[in-house]
Amino acid sequence: MQVYERFEIDLFFSITEKMTVLEGEKIIVSLLDKTEVEVVIE
């Protein structure tokens, strides 16, 4: 596993299909391999 020391914008855009923001609730990041990552906003 590779650990990155800083945010790699080109890498982000090469693996991300879309981001969905549900106002005041959560952010869902959909990757090209169909993985979804949800972050709840508190």
From TrEMBL:
Q: According to the lineage, what is the superkingdom?
A: Bacteria
Q: Which organism is it from?
A: Paramaledivibacter caminithermalis (strain DSM 15212 / CIP 107654 / DViRD3) (Clostridium caminithermale)
The opening ranks of the lineage are: Bacteria, Bacillati, Bacillota, Clostridia, Peptostreptococcales
Query: What is the protein name given in its UniProt record?
Result: Uncharacterized protein
